[in-house]
Amino acid sequence: ALFEILVLGTLSYTLIPLFLKYKRRSKNFSENLSATINLFVLLFFSLTILIVIFTPQLVQKITPGFTPEIQKEISFYTRIILLLQVPFLTFGNILIAIGQSEKRFILTSIAPLLYNLAIIFSTLILANQYSIQSVIIGVVLGSFLFFISQIPILKSADFKYKLIFHFNKSFQEFLKLSIVRILLTIAKQIEGFFELALATLLG
């Protein structure tokens, strides 16, 4: 849910138009976009760390009908996904947004295919030995393949990444474009949380 709200629901919706706008108009195109990406990543991973810290409390609220043992197991796997999957998917989706801005559609379409195939094959091959852990292994491996498959975009894109941090006009526009999309996605997720909580209570 976190990834859907702040990455899938934001990057594809806001980064592509900003990329195209500043590529045409700005002499400091790479600097502006790099600062925007860096500030987004900093905010996003700060939030991720907070969620990792308070995962047990959040799981208790979302799954009140589950036993403490099951809640502990859910918390453990959630933390693994947040720490090992989310970073690769975040950076991978940033590269995808850049690639789609430059019309590299074939390369960007490979990433989700590799991600899903890794989960499928990991589950089929390892399920008998590792049970639910086989899915987690597939998710982590798939997210890694998702990311590295998009690295060639950096070599072919006009954009040159720079490690700089400053609150510029580009980031302000990014926030303005993002906020509505994020609020709409959060509203849908809240509905899903209530449905999950009710399901755990009903057994």
Structural account:
The chain has 203 residues and is mainly α. It has helices spanning 2-8, 11-25, 29-53, 55-62, 68-101, 105-130, 133-148, 152-156, 169-202.
Write the layout of secondary structure elements.
Elements: H1 2-8, H2 11-25, H3 29-53, H4 55-62, H5 68-101, H6 105-130, H7 133-148, H8 152-156, H9 169-202
Q: TL;DR of this structure?
A:
The protein has 203 residues and is an all-alpha fold. 84% of the residues lie in helices and 0% in strands.
CA distance, first residue to last residue: 22 Å
Q: What is the β-strand count?
A: 0
User: Can you count the helices?
Assistant: 9
- State Rg: 19 Å
Unreliable spans = none
Shape: globular
Q: Main β-sheet: number of strands, strand sense, barrel status?
A: none
Helix content: over 70%
Strand fraction equals: under 5%
Return the string of H and E elements.
HHHHHHHHH
Oligomer: single chain
Averaged pLDDT:
85
Helix-strand category = mainly alpha
Key features of this structure:
203 residues; mainly alpha
